[in-house]
Amino acid sequence: MTRTKKFVAALRRRTAGASVVCLLGAGLVAAAPGTAMAADCGYYVCSWNGGTVVGAMTFRDDGDHFFVWDVEADGHGVRGELRHVNGERLDWAYDGTGADSTIAHFQYDIKEDIYYYLRVCTVDGANDTTPTNCNTRQIKE
């Protein structure tokens, strides 16, 4: 099994019930078999480095849960942030364990019909002010 297939399989296992999966390639998103694109689907955003997924962040509407994990044992951590559409950082989580060993988590009650952004970046420590390999995805409940 390729590294990409392993990563996608891990995403599906760790976020069972979510219906959207981040895949390699710019902008490719696929619905899991037997699911409908609905308000309660999960959203993913990934941090990339040279074509390799190094971190990921997911949102699950059921309970407003946000999950962040470091996928690559490369000496860097991953920080996932929830931002308001105005740019304000509302909450965040950091995972610096590498190699997909743990998942960081936070809950934030997002409001209906308001846009938010999921942002995930590679960082050197939880409070690194110079994140790299950032990727952002807009979500709405």
Description of the molecule:
- The structure is a single chain.
- The protein is mostly beta strands and 141 residues long.
- The protein has one domain (3-140): Immunoglobulin-like.
- It is 9% helix and 47% strand.
- It contains one helix and ten strands.
- The chain has one helix spanning 3-14, and strands at residues 20-22, 29-31, 42-49, 52-60, 65-70, 77-84, 89-95, 104-107, 115-123, 132-140.
- A four-stranded antiparallel sheet has the order 3-4-5-8, with no helix packed on it.
- The longest helix has 12 residues, at 3-14.
- The N and C termini lie far apart (35 Å).
- Residues 15-41 have low confidence and may be disordered.
- Keywords: Signal.
Percentage beta strand: over 45%
The average pLDDT value, as a whole number, equals 76
Please write the string of helix (H) and strand (E) elements: HEEEEEEEEEE
Task: Return the CATH topology.
Answer: Immunoglobulin-like
* 3D shape: globular
Q: What is the class in the CATH system?
A: Mainly Beta
List keywords for this structure.
mainly beta; 10 strands; 4-stranded antiparallel β-sheet; 141 residues
Briefly characterize the structure.
This protein has one helix and ten strands.
Task: Explain the layout of strands and helices.
Layout: H1 3-14, E1 20-22, E2 29-31, E3 42-49, E4 52-60, E5 65-70, E6 77-84, E7 89-95, E8 104-107, E9 115-123, E10 132-140
Antiparallel strand pairs: 1-2, 3-4, 4-5, 5-8, 6-7, 6-9, 9-10
